[in-house]
Amino acid sequence: MSISEVVTALDLVDTGSYPLTEPGGAAWREIVDRTRAELREVGCSVVKGFIRTELQSILRAECAALAPHAYATVERVNAYNIALDTPLPDHHPGRIIMERGNAFVTRDRIPATAIIQQLYTSPVFQRFVADCFGLPELHELADPLSGLTLNVIAPGRAHPWHFDTNEFTVSMLIQEADGGGRFEYCPNIRSATSENFGDVRAVLAGGSDLVRRLDLRPGDLQLFRGRYSLHRVSTVEGTIARHSAIFAYSEGPGVIGSPARTRQLFGRVLPEHLAEAVRGDKLLD
To answer: What pLDDT shows up at residue 2?
Structure first.
């Protein structure tokens, strides 16, 4: 019998502080109102200590067992994860090349009984997240690989500046690195109708005051508008890899990543990626 068959996802949540089973109650509304305000103001909100401190070791052990299934490759990328030989104007930020060394365990490699899989698919959790984003409902990504992933960043590696495919991202730090591995982001640096290439280039060049930094702890839940906010995880230092679960949702159904980006991140594509994908906007990536 696996750990997750004994302890379910909601068992690990600090429901005393975050009463997910009491939607619309006073405590629920207080958390949701605060989260919505932070998302409006800075495009990101952190629900501190979402997972009970005394039970975090269970989640950490389960994800450590999944980590060897990550697709790991070090490659040169740009912030839009498009081909490096894409014809672009001279000063386009897509011409700035970075090294990506993080690895992903894809959703189809994560058992249905895994705690992070249970949490991702939980109607109670989805309702809470949707309310925090001010939406009547959210949809799991139709993408069979990227809807839920475990992001593994080994010592000496980083997840460089990028935008997300999905508009609404929820992540949870599971294992903290010895040093480095800090989440940095530029809230709402672009919109669904404007790429704002000038500011993006300034950030990539290291000369912008738009960058914010978060000090996350294991068990913290982070809600983030990653489609419009440029973000990265800095180089991990020490001997311990950084692990985080990424729960990806969309406002409408059917959202699937592009074949090019899917192959780049996960080393493979499935038939769903080769069909005409649903995208929520016409941004570069």
So the answer is: 46
